[in-house]
User: Fold DRBM domain-containing protein from Cajanus cajan.
Amino acid sequence: MSIHSFHELLFAIRLLICNDKCEGRFVFSSQLLKPSMMALEQKLVSRTDSGPGGDNSKGQLQTLLTRAGYGAPFYITKQLKNNQFQATVEFNGVQIMGHPYNNKKNAEKDAAAEALQWLMDRRQTGNEDVNHMTMLLKKSKKDHN
Assistant:
């Protein structure tokens, strides 16, 4: 096994281990949350609203990936038959689909929020989420040589 493949395998294992609620399976856009947790997560990750300085889920996801040393995520948005838009965000070979929205911008923000929820340890709060996931996603120093 090459050293590059080894680091990719470790990356996948780290994603599975971080408090996996899906019993080891890759389940995107799963609905395992209890209603009481939804209010907490909405406070942690803004799904479509921008805060001061444009702080929204797209920016948070890009910051997280950049801090971990990865490229920016990209979005694929499709218009559905009911004139709504549904976006898929892709980063590091992972694709996560958001919920349908009436406009493209909110669909992309929702896809980013889904990705953040999938990546974050839900028990932490505030900026600790970004710092925690940065440590989990951090590339080895060997990758940079």
About this structure: The domain at 3-144 is CATH 3.30.160.20 (Double Stranded RNA Binding Domain). Residues 32-46, 121-126 have pLDDT under 50 and may be disordered.
